[in-house]
Amino acid sequence: MGRKRHVPASRWSRAGKIAALAGAVAVTVSGCSVDEVLRFGWPVGVTPEAEQMRELWTWTVLAALAVGVLVWGLIFWSVAFHRKKKDDDELPRQFQYNVPLELFAVVLPTIMVCVLFFFTATTEVSVLAEEEDPDVTVDVVAFQWNWEFKYPEETTSEGEPISTVGSSTEIPLLVLPTDKRIQFNLESTDVIHSFWVPELLFKRDVFPRPEKNNQDNTFQITSIDKEGAFVGRCAELCGTYHSVMNFEVRALSPADYDEYIRLRKQVNPDTQVPYTASEALEEMNCGELCEPFATTTRPFTTDRTADSAVG
């Protein structure tokens, strides 16, 4: 029979200290803040729905790490204490047909899956919840390769809904208020597109004739939590210029938003037509938030003789 090898306790203590030090160094040199570590790579959102999804992600990762630590611990424990020793003819202790162990291996994963499903389903229901009377409604119309944003409840002096359309030289601006429930109605005039604002941590495909294709083409956000400019993109490959089919969300305070809508309803005395989005923002003169043109992305040049693309 082989002699069992004794591992001094000091060696295990030294190994534990080295592992802890390596972990601390890894976190320190990565430059991650406490908030970034707790988000586990999840980006920062600007809506309550985004925060709910972040919390689901954080707890899911923590649960996965706990399972990983348990599995790794069992593996290392088996390797360290149940390996065959040199000159040892006896087999390690066998665990087949161990009913308690088999029940544990089946019941525990089943409980974990059920818990994960419950929290995923409740978060999804909350994120997709809609109220009958949102504060602001926006019709989002996607087409190759541009966007139109309409405010069906707000009309100009000409009796038409306020509308913003992009062009080859101007990125379309979707101006929204903070702290208000907003509903988006999505529709495409040609192929499938996708409405995506990364800071919302949410995107939805935009289908042509959604009512005839049994597609849910509406969603709501409870509020935008802070003012700012956020880039929006088409996230569905939709043709040649898909990559430059961008727009910008401009989130203003409720008072500034009301002023913006008031101007959009009026006629610009210089042009004798209702104010455009850029003209209304420029007229408001409220600092960086009222820059008349997009600040998060630029138009794509259509000059095919250009040396490089701009966008």
From TrEMBL:
Has keyword Kinase? Answer: no
Gene3D superfamilies xref list: 1.10.287.90, Cupredoxins - blue copper proteins
Sorted alphabetically, which SUPFAM superfamilies does this protein's record hold? Cupredoxins, Cytochrome c oxidase subunit II-like, transmembrane region
Q: How does it sit in the membrane?
A: Multi-pass membrane protein
Q: Where is the Cytochrome oxidase subunit II copper A binding domain?
A: 133-263
From the Swiss-Prot or TrEMBL record, state where the protein is found: Membrane
State the source organism's domain of life.
Answer: Bacteria
Top enzyme category: translocase
InterPro entries, A to Z? CcO_II, CcO_II-like_C, Copper_CuA, Cupredoxin, Cyt_c_oxidase_su2, Cyt_c_oxidase_su2_TM_sf
Q: What is its EC number?
A: 7.1.1.9
Keywords assigned: Copper, Electron transport, Membrane, Metal-binding, Respiratory chain, Translocase, Transmembrane, Transmembrane helix, Transport
* Transmembrane segment boundaries: 57-80, 101-121
Reaction(s) the record says it catalyses = 4 Fe(II)-[cytochrome c] + O2 + 8 H(+)(in) = 4 Fe(III)-[cytochrome c] + 2 H2O + 4 H(+)(out)
Tell me the NCBIfam families matching this sequence. CoxB
Summary of the function given for this chain in its UniProt record: Subunits I and II form the functional core of the enzyme complex. Electrons originating in cytochrome c are transferred via heme a and Cu(A) to the binuclear center formed by heme a3 and Cu(B).
Similarity comment text for this entry: Belongs to the cytochrome c oxidase subunit 2 family.
State the name under which the record lists this protein: cytochrome-c oxidase
